[in-house]
From TrEMBL:
Keywords for this protein: DNA integration, DNA recombination
Identification of the protein by name: Integrase
Xref: Pfam families: Phage_integrase (PF00589)
Positions of region (Disordered): 135-157
Coiled-coil positions: none
Gene Ontology biological process terms in this record: DNA integration; DNA recombination
GO MF annotations in UniProt: DNA binding
Protein family: Belongs to the 'phage' integrase family.
Lineage top rank: taxon: Bacteria
Domain Tyr recombinase: 16-115
UniProt biased composition (Polar residues): 147-157
Length: 157
């Protein structure tokens, strides 16, 4: 579980974000690699103007160094990709929107105060399985199968 402070969100609300198993495993490995430092992603160089951990611009700078030959994309495109994959997996639109910490619009957003925590827990697990499947297919995967042929969301245990 990742508790994101409200000060770091556009909505100002502090969401509890259920992390998929694979993300937890990656964070545990990063913690080992960081030698149990205060930050899981410490800054490589510490200068007087730098913060002691990876900052918001780090991913964008890193992408600029490795995306040669690829179509233009931004860090925000990762969110679009996640949302698209969640739709392909059959995740209900309101759950997928909540996975991205978007407020529900209209009457739905006014009256439906349920946080869909269990659904938000299962959706990233299914997405993680899809990403692993795509990784196994190699660098140029075939077009994803229609939603009715995709992996199903894990059931409650």
């Amino acid at each position: 579980m990742w508790h994101l402070p409200g000060i770091r969100t556009r909505t100002g609300q502090p969401p509890d974000i259920p992390l998929p198993t694979m993300a937890v495993e990656w964070l545990q490995k990063l913690n080992e690699l960081a030698c149990n430092a205060e930050h899981v992603l410490p800054a490589r160089k510490l200068q007087s103007r730098m913060v002691p951990h990876v900052c918001e611009s780090t991913l964008g700078v890193a992408m600029g160094k490795v995306k040669r030959g690829l179509p233009h994309f931004t860090v925000h495109d990762f969110r679009r990709t996640a949302r698209t994959h969640l739709a392909a997996l059959g995740v209900e639109p309101h759950v997928a929107e909540r996975c991205l910490n978007h407020k529900l619009k209209g009457v739905e957003g006014v009256y439906n105060r349920h946080d869909h925590f269990e659904e938000r827990r299962r959706a990233p697990e299914a997405w993680g399985q899809l990403l692993l499947k795509l990784k196994r297919q190699g660098p140029h995967p075939k077009k994803p199968a229609p939603a009715n042929q995709q992996a199903t969301l894990p059931q409650e245990t």
